Here is the input.
Amino acid sequence: MSLAFLVVALLVGHTFASMAMTVVPAVAPAIARDYGVDPSLIGYQIAFVSLGQGASIMFLSNLGRRVGACRAYQIGLLGLALGMLLMALPSKILLAAGSIVMGLGHGFVTPASAALLMRFSPADKRNLLFSFQQTGVPLGGIAAALLAPAIAVIAGWPWVLGLTAVLLVSMAATLQRGRPYWDTDLDTKAAVVASNPFGGIMMIWRDRPLRMLALTGGAYCWGQFVVISYTVVTAVTELGMSLIVAGTLLTVVHLGSTGGRVVAGWFADRVGGTRVLIWIGWLLLVTAALSFWMGPGWPAILLYVLFALLGAATGAWAGLLLAESARLAPHGQTGAATSGVMIYVNAGKFLGPVVAANLYALTSSYGLSFASMVVPAMFGIYCLARLESGATPVKDEKARIPA
Here is the structure.
């Protein structure tokens, strides 16, 4: 089975998984209207997703070893589909439960894809391939931003969730074609439930380079999910846009993220992933500060440029972080290191939208909620500076990267 098929399959799988994560924020005003709640509470739906994802990573991180990375990836897609179907039912309780189930499924997707790419991608193209595969995240966001508001207006938002579930199931079935070639390293004796669920957290914390990288990922993910969660809500409630026009603003965010990931991956293969991650942190800091002044009086072109830059700043880091995590992982522990890093990243996904929701509740200003991303941006830059100051010498790389 060719490397091209693997990369494209993971790209499409990540696209559908990302669509699942983004459709609810894309139609949040419609869901809030039907349930009679404030749209700013969308941050708590993302928090439920992150709780499920954190539990999956902590307690079920051995699943890929037991059944194979491809099978774990398929299970993750099916978990996302089940979560979508639960949320489509008319119940606030099932909306929360479906969000948790989504998170459980999503917790398998990224570590499984990282393990597959690390095994089969050439070292000199690793950053580019990781970043290319990760473009599925903004591509899924674009699909959700363009399709979800229109379908919600025409047929109702539950149909958006049902369509997404169908796409996820179809991709899980397609991956079966490559599984016999990819899942050749499974350990049938490995326990599915981790004997030490906090082992990944402690493993990362004890390894200084991985710790700094993981904390940076949490900080950057904080910004990413503030922007994803609140772009449509802000556009509708504060900038005076319709739901469909607000979807175009979210599309611009994801276009910026897509371009940013590819460009960042290209630069990282030439100047180093850590240096590019620092540049991304500075871009996030500047754009977050500028967003404090956005308002309905801004020309449309300035709003679209700002949100395109916010998309690049909050999306371009993901592929580089995964590639750097795999590079710095101890020999033979790529999956464990990636899962451990993702726990810290997931903490940012939880905290960012919740903090933004509470800031809005206190100030009634989405501009301030966006501007608060300056804090995690500064923290990420600080962590990366410490990582660079104690960079692993070249002579020690062989202890971390398999030949």
